[in-house]
Give the backbone structure.
Amino acid sequence: MSHLIAPSILSADFANIQRDVEMINKSEADWFHVDIMDGMFVPNISFGFPVIKAIKKHTTKPLDVHLMINDPDRYLQTFKEAGADVLTVHLEACNHLHRSIQAIKALGMKAGVAINPHTSANLLMDIIADVDLVCVMSVNPGFGGQKFIENTYHKIHTLHEMIRATKSKALIEIDGGVDMNNYKKLIDAGAKVLVAGNTVFSSSNPSQTISELKKG
Ligand code: DX5
Ligand code: ZN
């Protein structure tokens, strides 16, 4: 399978959200990455259900929803109703991660688990076979446009080995600081989904930037 590109709507122009959604629809992007922040799990608040529903109304691509919220079990069904296709929770935010993953799948969504930069990839050993996606945070979550953390490559190698050993179907997603200088190296290391916010939306031609990221 060739890699997927998921532009992060966090860096879009919210006063022109329909324009940016249509740009992504027409581009070679595969998914829409949607960042939900609660001001508790991360030191920022992004947006909530009305915005997701508005995006869902206009997009032709799957919504890859990344929950940076404490105790996400409270809202899994509401995210399904808002239009999430892939729903990712943080290992650090769940008391019963296995239960949360099963609940996401039972609602008919693909289930992802995200880990912060300080969290060892080895902690995923007993959940990797159950998830569809592992989101490796390559910045501390909370903001777009941050610098990529190099230790991410080490984590990709660990996860790649774990996925092989367990015959897991999980895709490795990299989130944060993906740019034109590191995306090829990330794909070569085994990344299957690249999230890109600032790199796409601050470029002079976002659609062309997506095509370049897609070439790999
Ligand atoms: C960070 C978010 C990312 C962010 C990525 O907390 O989870 O998805 O939008 O943005 P860039 O690509 O600008 O680092
Ligand atoms: Zn994200």
Observations:
- The first helix runs from residue 17 to 26.
